[in-house]
Write a structure and sequence with these properties.
With 193 residues, the protein is mainly alpha-helical. 84% of the residues lie in helices and 0% in strands. The radius of gyration is 17 Å and the shape is elongated.
Length: 193
């Protein structure tokens, strides 16, 4: 079943509309959506390795724009949109504890959230709520998301067919690892803050 799903994602990744789907997922993941864009970014680069730079660039820009939307949710509509999102992910208690740390380490938190599997939407919404300087937030988001997505894209381009073969042979293990990292990011939020 996993191989079949992987095959479908690879097939979709080579289609002309895939770049728009990646842009949409990247945007939404930075503000409201729980699934990271890597689920489409990786197969798109495997399907078209010569387009790695364009794919990573679009993913980065879309993610930063989505981060600005998350910032706006926190700044303008926290009670109406942001708090229900936090309740959906069961983070409301941790969020209030997070406030004190954010005042001191806000820019570093944005960098950490932008380069790891940490749920970036929580960082973007928190940045708006706690009124992190918008210029600092934007520049840090560009750098962090750029590091994350360009590193993945460059490695996939550089390693090329051998990495695709590795992924296809060990798809089950890689899927488990990916979701473990994703859940780990959510757990980090829950227990660290």
């Amino acid at each position: 079943m996993l191989q079949s799903l992987y095959g479908k994602i690879i097939k979709i990744s080579g289609r002309p509309y895939a770049i728009w789907a990646l842009a949409g997922i990247s945007f939404l993941e930075s503000s409201i959506f729980p699934i990271p864009p890597d689920v489409l970014l990786i197969p798109m680069i495997l399907a078209a390795p010569t387009r790695w730079f364009k794919i990573a660039f679009i993913c980065t820009i879309s993610s930063v724009l989505g981060g600005l939307a998350g910032y706006a949710i926190g700044f303008l509509a926290f009670e109406r949109i942001g708090m229900p999102l936090l309740q959906l992910y069961a983070y409301e208690n941790q969020f209030s504890e997070f406030r004190g740390k954010y005042a001191e380490y806000g820019q570093w938190i944005v960098f950490f959230g932008g380069t790891t599997m940490f749920p970036f939407k929580l960082v973007t919404i928190a940045s708006g709520v706690f009124e992190l300087n918008l210029t600092n937030f934007t520049v840090t988001s560009i750098v962090a998301r750029g590091i994350r997505f360009f590193t993945v894209a460059l490695l996939l381009w550089w390693l090329g067919p051998p990495i695709r073969s590795f992924i296809e042979r060990r798809l089950g293990l890689i899927t488990i690892l990916f979701f473990a990292l994703l859940v780990g990011g959510f757990m980090l939020v829950k227990y660290a803050f």
